[in-house]
Amino acid sequence: MITYSKVEEKGFFDTYTISSLKNLAFLIMLIDHIGVILYPEISTFRVIGRIAFPMFAFLTIYNFTFNVKDRTKQLITISILALISQIAFIVAFDYGTTILNIFYSMLLVCAFIHIYEDYKSKILIYLSYTFLFALSFFVEYGFFGFSFMIFLYSFLRIESSKFNLLMIFISVSLVNGFVSIVYSVVAVLTIAILIMIYLDSKSINLFSYRFDKYFYYGFYPFHLLILSIFSNIEEFNKFVSFLLI
Q1: Is residue 5 part of a domain?
Q2: Which residue of 54, 72, 78, 180 has the lowest C-beta tally within 10 Å?
Q3: What SS3 class is residue 176?
Q4: Is 124 helix (H, G, I), strand (E, B) or coil?
Q5: Which residues form the domain of 198?
Q6: Residue 170 CB coordination number (10 Å)
Q7: Which of 44, 23, 67 is nearest to 210 (CA)?
Q8: Which string of DSSP letters, residue by residue, matches 71-109?
Q9: Would you write out the chain's pLDDT as a tens digit for each of its 245 residues?
Q10: Euclidean distance between the first and the last CA atom of the chain, given in angstroms as a whole number
């Protein structure tokens, strides 16, 4: 039997708050990837970009937990997006084929939420968590990112305890701590701001324009491919010239 937190079954954020957070997250992600792909020598882009992952994790968990009606269908959608985006991910980043993109990270957590809330078997829950945790070693942000999202889900949905809150801050710090202390500080501050918004859902109303869902679906792979083209403009021009010959 799940003991839910004080959050109502359908969540409590209004549409404008969700749209604002989502649009802001996409904008920050774009800034981050511009830095990674086009200007890797400028660290400011990366520092700003540390805000993106906590925001996307927050939005994914919130929407999947409170707003998604057909979770199985949503998992299939995420799987398709992950598969399509992997091509752009490999082209844009120098990770090779050993690391899977952020959609797979979200997929693992959403799959666990689905099993935890919609199936009653404790054995299935324990086995699925172990399996999904093992898979998290092969996705972007790794098992620290997976743990962060699990604790975030637990805080939002099950029990808003001080322990869960502490683990949220620790795990999101470790996600970035191996790269830069500054990155960790920015990520932790992002979580603090998100929690304040969580406590007062009226506190943000900027960037509230609602784009079509397919815009959001296609933004990740499309912008990675565009940035990759700009970063290899000479090679791209040669390729176009070859096609026109």
Answers
A1: no
A2: 72
A3: helix
A4: helix
A5: 15-244
A6: 16
A7: 23
A8: HHHHHHHHHHHHHHHHHHHHHHSTTTTSSB-HHHHHHHH
A9: 444 444 444 445 566 677 778 888 899 899 999 999 988 888 888 888 888 888 898 889 989 998 899 999 999 999 999 999 999 999 888 776 788 999 999 999 999 999 999 997 899 999 999 999 999 999 988 888 898 888 888 877 776 565 666 666 666 555 555 445 555 555 656 666 665 555 555 545 555 566 777 888 899 999 999 998 888 775 555 555 555 55
A10: 67
Torsion angle, CA of 187/191/196/202, rounded to 10 degrees?
90
Q: What are the CB-based long-range contacts (under 8 Å, 24+) for 81-86?
A: 81/217, 81/220, 81/221, 82/107, 84/221, 85/220, 85/221, 85/224
4 within domain boundaries: no
104, 128 in Cβ contact below 8 A?
Answer: no
pTM > 0.85 = no
> In terms of C-beta distances under 8 Å and separation of at least 24 residues, what long-range contacts does 65-72 make, across chains too?
65/11, 65/113, 65/117, 65/153, 65/156, 65/157, 66/7, 66/9, 66/10, 66/11, 67/10, 67/11, 71/110, 71/113, 71/114, 71/118, 72/114
Beta bridge partners of 139: 100
In a domain, 2, yes or no: no
Residue 187 included in any domain: yes
How many domains does the chain fold into? 1
Strand partners, 100: 139
